[in-house]
Amino acid sequence: MTARAALGRLGVAAAQLLALSVLVFTATEALPGDAAEAVLGEDYTPQQAAEIRARMGLDEPPTIRFLQWWQDLLTGDLGTSLISGRPVTDLVARSLPPTLILAAATVALLVPLAAALGLAAGAGEGGRLDRAVTTATLVLYSIPDFALAMLLVLGLSLQVRLLPATAMGADGWRLLTDPLLLVLPVAVLLCRVAALLVRQVRAGTADAMRSEYAAHARRLGVGRRRLLLRHVAPNALAPASEELARVGDNLFSGVLVVEVVFAVPGVAGGVVDAVAMRDVPVVQGYVFVLGAVTIALNQAAELVSRRLVPRIEQVRR
Amino acid sequence: MPIETTRRAALGLGALGAGAVLLGGCSGDPAPERPRSGGRVRALFAGGGANESMDPHVQPLFIDQARHKALYEKLTQFNADMSPRGQLAEDWTVDEGGARWRFRLRAARFHDGRTVTADDVLASYARITAPADTPRNGRTLLARVDLGNSRAVEERTVELRLTSPTYELPALLAGTGMHIVPADFDDRDPATDAVGSGAFTLASFEAGRSMRAERFGDHWDGGARIGELEILSAESEARGNALLGGQGEYIHDMSATFARSNEDNPDVTVVRTPNSGMAAMAMKTDRAPFDDPRVRKAFRLLVDRERLVDVVSAGTARVGNDVFGSGYRYFDDDLPQRGRDLDRARRLLREAGAQDLEVALDTSEAAPGFVDAATLFAEQAAEAGATVDVRVGNQDTYFSDILDQGVFASYRSGSMPIPNHLALRMVSDAPQNVTGWKRAGFDEAFARAQATADEQERTRRYHELQQELHDDGGLIVWGYTEWINATAASLRGVERDAPPNTADWARFDRVWLE
């Protein structure tokens, strides 16, 4: 990739982030109610609400507040929470580790698992293993996360006392030093995202196995194993690697459920809390950081998939 | 790193409440041979994420209240019936017709060893009433305290002067967010260094996650029995799983479903607390159709309270009687229980020319059971010929929306003293006058009741106010709700009869582990 193309990509990423922040700000503003109402809740009185709005600066017009936020952002400051008055950077930094650990552990297991199962099932299309994998992934894909989480907790924590039922009170560090806490949450996440990916890899493998070039390789006497790993796998995994970037969305909604059920204080819970409290700067901060991460992942996935199947470059040669 | 303390708690007379008059019922535990001391208790509450705070004066969530209770104390606190009892205040005297109060403080110490003085009390109240970035609940409670003219009489005697007389001051000082902190409280960050006089000292705090606290050896009441207390944030599902999975000893605010399914579980004690709130609907008495007393009366006669209790609260509430505060001090137990009388309801509607009445009932998912109750009520009203349209609104703005919009709405209240409820919702300029109840005579009678020195006479006056509301007011109270907590069977000394906001609710200095 040339330097110019890289710059172009950066520009696109910046534009995407700007659009995202406008969208999120507008969406949060459009929600009924504001932080003052959220803080007061059932104890709402008009007078108290007016006082709080004035102190939070909510009586300023939205455009002014939005520009203010961008101005702060350019100096590397994500602003402060309307509710707790703490710096948004702190809040985001504090809730990132547990979520990153959950996500990283899931993805680390996801890739080898999906590749192995998908290739094995696709290579023996219609066989016993293939049927078993196809059925299992379909079932897991159909069970809602929270139901799966409840079933696992009921079975493995409350019935046989094998694993802790929640990660109560644990921070990122505890999650790393006490990996037992991670088993159930990661299992739930894995079931959610792996099912789709396995089916993708399986379909890609089955297609590639039926292709002309595979048939030709067989005629040339290439062994089954070599065929699968050298010729079929790259083609089968290319669409899956792009799917992997999209796993992010799926992973996020999964993380949200898992964080609630297992009491892991992470990013997803932070975002939901902030939206519920109409804490606009915090919502903006979280979404901005998550958006940046997502864009980076997408770019990385695209690069990986080009490496696996360098078709575009070939045409140019 | 859990620290297992082996220090024996100095029990002494502490078990008897050291001078405090205990009015609450017994907790249902058999008398222990000897409470053990030491050990760690983990208590789980609904979390507030990054908004949890160790500042005892901000608008608190339940989890904040529980944490603050462990670390800080107030001058007074509530018995189970919402009457005040001393905490830091040993006793008090009043003169000038209820406008000048003197509170004598106990020999209590802050966690840093300093004595709790009258100056600390005045500084705390000044901090509560000072404008701040966060709403401070105590400001309204201190509205009539004239701090400029209040003073420290001696090191441990504080005099509070009021701008208008009330004999309810001790109850006001027991409200949420009224804790006494050292005068120099703002020199430190309470999240890392919280200095109070409570039975536990802060070990660590992380908002949205947990607070760890350790037994304070110098507490005036003899100190806690357990060595360590951890108060953690978790949503309802996780709280239940943690208790069942042995990751917690006390869980707060559980569903009727959880209670039912664990009623026979030998490892779990379900703690049901009656009189913890009211479930109601509010008619706006200042606008049509409910500005006609006959229509209000008809609606109070057509509601089937028993059925609402059975269906919506799964039978856990007691049948309501249209007035707030059953089981609390000043409540008029002689009010006749109102029942269902469809014929009379129809007749009243006809007399009011409202036989084909159509009215919108605002509700939302802002509180569990609101929509169910509204839907069921609409069916009951139809039997009397009235059409009630249930309008489900936005739950996030519900409680501000119903203050001035609409004519009829789902409503509820937690536990508070009856005078506080009247001041908050039932006088003409009440900030949450959800029934639009504006009557000069009622306001005067309420002011007179508060300024009546003789308790019997004062009680009689409060009864009169309740009779007026029972006959003519805008609330249809269909249930007095219970609160459900649960503990591990090994946790003892948890007071059952302690509604939220009372002294023995979420109180961990008296519990022990078997």
From TrEMBL, chain A:
Residues 96-305 form the ABC transmembrane type-1 domain. It is a multi-pass membrane protein. It is found in: Cell membrane. Residues 1-26 form the signal peptide. One of its GO terms (biological process) is transmembrane transport. The chain crosses the membrane at residues 100-124, 136-160, 180-198, 251-271, 283-301. GO terms for cellular component: plasma membrane. InterPro entries: BPD_transp_1_N, MetI-like, MetI-like_sf. Keywords: Cell membrane, Membrane, Signal, Transmembrane, Transmembrane helix, Transport. Belongs to the binding-protein-dependent transport system permease family. This is Peptide/nickel transport system permease protein. It comes from Streptomonospora salina.
TrEMBL record, chain B:
Keywords: Signal, Transport. SUPFAM superfamilies: Periplasmic binding protein-like II. One of its GO terms (biological process) is peptide transport. Its main location: other. It is found in: Cell envelope. One of its GO terms (molecular function) is peptide transmembrane transporter activity. It comes from the Bacteria. Residues 84-418 form the Solute-binding protein family domain. InterPro entries: Peptide/Ni-bd, SBP_5, SBP_5_dom, TAT_signal. Pfam families: SBP_bac_5 (PF00496). One of its GO terms (cellular component) is ATP-binding cassette (ABC) transporter complex. PROSITE patterns: PROKAR_LIPOPROTEIN, TAT. Belongs to the bacterial solute-binding protein 5 family. This is Peptide/nickel transport system substrate-binding protein. It comes from Streptomonospora salina. The lineage of its organism: Bacteria, Bacillati, Actinomycetota, Actinomycetes, Streptosporangiales.
